[in-house]
Design a protein that fits this description.
Layout (H helix, E strand, L loop, with lengths): L15 E10 L3 H5 L5 E2 L8 E8 L1 H11 L6 H13 L7 E11 L4 E5 L4 H20 L5 H7 L13 E7 L7 E10 L3 E3 L8
Antiparallel strand pairs: 1-3, 1-7, 1-8, 2-6, 4-5, 4-7, 5-6
Length: 201
Amino acid sequence: MTASDRTPGKPEEPRVTVEVPVLRIGAGLDDYEGLSRFVVSLRKPQGLHMTLLHVGILDHLVADIEAWTKGRSTPERVLPEIVSWLTELPVLEGFLGKSDRLVPLGGGRLMGLEVDVPQEVHDYQALLVQGLHVLLDDLGLDNIDDFILSSHALGYRSPRWLPHIAVGKAQSRQQGATELAPVAIEFGDSRIRHRESLPAQ
């Protein structure tokens, strides 16, 4: 399957990410709901998370890899390797972060809390990217940085990771960053989003 083969209107498979769940923002729900002054359609607090690595829809990633290698890396080989790599990733233990800034995301369509996280979180995220490089090298890809930035499945827009939590829609495309009173954020252990959708090994 290529990007052009993806049928409009067809239900998409789950997008797989490595993420950490948000357990608490500030003193509780009131602190979070106060953000409704700045965003439209504030997201439900129980679904808040911070993405450490976006892997995307696995079938799409497999297709991107097959196209990049001109068919040398077949889906029958690639998919089990990706799933094995994902399920063997080490777990990052829960941690505390803080935020004092609301920033536009996704070209200005969304707003999110920019989060200051401990160095070990940056180190873990860098480990994920390094591991992805090794995986793609093992799968026969060349120019891996170019692949990562061009793959529609991976969805990278920049090589620099910005720790953030998407919280809702921007009030307008012109909405800029907003300074906030500093708030502590508690995160849980890292996990694979939609892990239950991964093919059995």
